[in-house]
Design goal:
Shape: globular
CATH architecture: 3-Layer(aba) Sandwich
Helix content: 40-55%
Strand order of the largest sheet: 5-4-1-8-6-9-7
Distance between the termini: 13 Å
């Protein structure tokens, strides 16, 4: 079985923009916990970091995970357990980076995603080659709300090209964008 345990996803809730371009903290959506964890398991990633600085949001994630990993949810639907075990709820991007660095003895390369094209962008073919080398861990960062703050984007090693459809509309749900991105980077036909 092919494994991509050197690749992690990070879903950032702060710092992100609202529609007025103000920096905010967005709330955790439990559908993102389920769907992105299932995606991470489908592509055999090393983990999925939910990054949010608020205590009440951590409490929500922990209640959700307790239901599915220790409570009735896991008994009712045991197929949800392996994906949800990949979730790590952390307070900051730095905490996610430290966790990966501790496991791999080196800092991960950071790939951020954005719906806006700016700067020197990494295309999917080059990103796929980078990930296949498995010489370093990678953390692929997804933003919530109206996207990642520019300061966070500017600190990344790479900025992945946006996903373009056939029209002008470009505002996918994070779950949809994550699925498209991972399939482009790691997918293979069978």
């Amino acid at each position: 079985m092919l494994t991509n345990e050197h690749i992690y996803l990070g879903l950032v809730h702060y710092p992100v923009h609202n529609k007025r371009k103000e920096i905010i903290i967005s709330a955790v959506a439990t559908i993102n916990l389920h769907d992105i964890a299932r995606l991470a398991k489908t592509y055999e990633l090393g983990g999925y970091f939910v990054i949010n600085p608020l205590e009440d949001q951590h409490a929500l994630v922990h209640r959700f995970l307790a239901h599915w990993l220790k409570g009735f949810g896991g008994k009712y639907n045991p197929r949800r357990v392996p994906p949800l075990k990949l979730i790590h709820c952390v307070y900051s991007l730095e905490e996610a980076i430290e966790a990966i660095e501790k496991k791999w003895q080196q800092a991960p390369q950071i790939i951020v995603t954005s719906a806006k094209a700016s700067g020197n962008l990494l295309d999917y073919q080059m990103a796929r080659r980078l990930l296949q080398q498995k010489q370093t861990p990678f953390l692929i960062i997804l933003g919530t709300a109206w996207g990642l703050a520019e300061d966070l984007i500017s600190q990344a090693n790479y900025v992945l090209k946006p996903i373009y459809g056939v029209g002008d509309y470009n505002h996918l749900s994070v779950r949809t964008a994550a699925a498209i991105i991972l399939d482009r980077l790691l997918g293979g036909e069978r």
